Amino acid sequence: MATHPDSCFTYISSLKTNPQNDPQLIFSLCLQLGVNELANLSRSHYSPADSALRDCNELFDDALNQLNNSMASMRLGLTEEMTEDLNAWISGAMSDLETCLDGLEEMGSMALDEMRVKVRISKEYMSNSLAILANIHQLLTKFDLKMH
């Protein structure tokens, strides 16, 4: 299901609580990891002289807003209607990260390789979140749970 399951489950297994029978909680935790990684990227200070990096910072802020919208919605509990919004927000955040990398590549930025590494982890968490969301109905059924 998830394309990078180890990235989320390593963190989740270190928690004192055991959310393994709650797909919604696993989704939220994995998404929170993506928010945390993206927040770290967003707080990074890059040379304002590099226009591609300036664009990346704006894209990171936009992506972070989309993920924060997702987290705020999840606090209300996952609903059927919300899954489409969550999918759009998380996918949009991933697109922002790709757009950043594309811009760095087009501009021949020396920061491209470093940024690829930093962006990869956040994208893994978001990718896992999307995979869980895409399979949420089957997961909830498997654990005899329902959407809120």
Short description:
This protein is an all-alpha fold and 148 residues long.
Determine the structural class based on helices, strands and strand pairing: mainly alpha
Alpha plus pi helix count:
6
User: In percent terms, what proportion of residues is strand?
Assistant: under 5%
Largest sheet: none
Secondary structure: number of strands = 0
How far from one another are the termini?
22 Å
Note the overall shape: elongated
Element pattern in H and E: HHHHHH
- Rg for CA atoms: 16 Å
Mean pLDDT: 83
How would you sum up this structure, described in words?
The protein has 148 residues and is mainly α. The relative contact order is 0.19. It starts with a helix and ends in a 6-residue tail after the last helix. It has helices at residues 5-13, 23-43, 51-74, 80-106, 112-134, 136-142. Helix 2 runs antiparallel to helix 3 (51-74), helix 3 packs antiparallel against helix 4 (80-106) and helix 4 packs antiparallel against helix 5.
